[in-house]
Design the sequence.
């Protein structure tokens, strides 16, 4: 088929477009908006961890000084979540870049996606030491955990730390690739094609 | 109806056919095409208060349509193939049905679907008779680069059509 014929066919094609609606669709179909939504959902879904950890703490640890210390850590963790929620909502104002050139539009989108990715990664890293500390407190001062000597305690702690960190990172990596990485891949491939 | 909305609807009504053709170029099933069409009209409506009339409305609209289409994701919901019949019913007037033309159009869209997002945009500008300079401006490329990319996209399309 000749391209000039194609052009004529294109121009002559009569299509019956659907009714115009000025409403936003329910399903999100834009990579940047998907990332924003996923991060917001993840932030808010962290909240049930606080009462749950407090409950485990009061049930498992007898020493009230340790419980108080661990509760303070949970308070710090809560502040970290609030801080990141604030950062995300502050940046969440809509920036409409659709009327820019395609290249500028894509670059702007990539920039915003990178901002959210960095925010998300630093959020995870900020929570990690607090979560690990809580785990150690419950592990060390829990009612049923009694160790014969320092060596067995240190050995158990080190092994559980290595396995714990490893599993946490593996889980996070798979999670990140599924919910975030594939959107980055799409944008990167578009940038590669436009350059 | 507020004046701005009325003005927008009147303007977009004249070009909705071309906007739907863009949706057809980027999405291969009717539900996704409808969704993309709705997203484009929504994005255009959101940007409309900032439209200053420095270019034609159609040119401005096509730019928004393509920028939306380039990053639009296919639905993750499974689509039933029965719905494809709906596409055919809606796209063709029975009394004007030309089997060969329809076959050519289907072949054309089938080939376009295999191009990448940027090549689709270049082919759209080509089909709409935009000059190399205009294409370059809309895509944010140099004129020379736009022409080279257009030639490559046309060659790919020719190969896919043979």
Sequence:
């Amino acid at each position: 088929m000749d391209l000039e014929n194609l052009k004529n066919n294109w121009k002559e094609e009569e299509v019956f477009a659907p009714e115009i609606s000025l409403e936003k669709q329910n399903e999100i179909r834009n990579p940047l908006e998907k990332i924003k939504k996923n991060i917001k959902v993840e932030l808010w879904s962290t909240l049930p961890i606080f009462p749950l950890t407090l409950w485990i703490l009061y049930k498992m640890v007898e020493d009230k000084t340790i419980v108080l210390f661990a509760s303070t850590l949970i308070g710090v963790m809560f502040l970290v979540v609030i801080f990141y929620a604030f950062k995300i909502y502050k940046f969440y104002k809509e920036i409409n870049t659709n009327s820019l050139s395609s290249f500028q539009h894509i670059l702007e989108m990539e920039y915003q996606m990178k901002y959210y990715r960095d925010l998300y990664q630093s959020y995870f890293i900020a929570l990690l030491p607090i979560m690990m500390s809580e785990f150690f407190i419950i592990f060390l001062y829990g009612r049923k955990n009694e160790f014969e000597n320092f060596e067995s305690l240190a050995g158990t702690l080190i092994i559980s730390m290595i396995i714990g960190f490893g599993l946490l990172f593996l889980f996070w990596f798979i999670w990140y690739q599924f919910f975030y990485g594939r959107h980055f891949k799409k944008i990167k491939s578009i940038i590669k094609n436009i350059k | 109806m507020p004046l701005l909305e009325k003005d927008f609807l009147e303007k977009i009504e004249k070009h909705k056919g071309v906007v739907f053709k863009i949706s057809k170029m980027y999405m291969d099933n009717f539900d996704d095409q409808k969704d993309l069409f709705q997203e484009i009209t929504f994005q255009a409506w959101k940007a409309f208060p900032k439209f200053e009339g420095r270019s034609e409305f159609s040119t401005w609209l096509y730019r928004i349509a393509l920028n939306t289409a380039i990053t639009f994701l296919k639905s993750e919901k499974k689509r039933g193939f029965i719905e494809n019949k709906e596409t055919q019913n809606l796209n063709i007037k029975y009394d004007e049905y030309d089997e060969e033309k329809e076959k050519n159009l289907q072949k054309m869209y089938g080939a376009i679907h295999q191009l990448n997002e940027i090549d689709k945009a270049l082919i759209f500008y080509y089909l709409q008779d935009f000059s190399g300079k205009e294409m370059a401006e809309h895509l944010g490329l140099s004129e020379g680069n736009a022409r080279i990319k257009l030639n490559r996209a046309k060659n790919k399309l020719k190969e896919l059509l043979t």
Chain B touches chain A through 66 residues (CB under 8 Å). Helices of chain B lie at 3-26, 30-47, 57-71, 84-91, 99-113, 117-127, 132-139, 143-161.
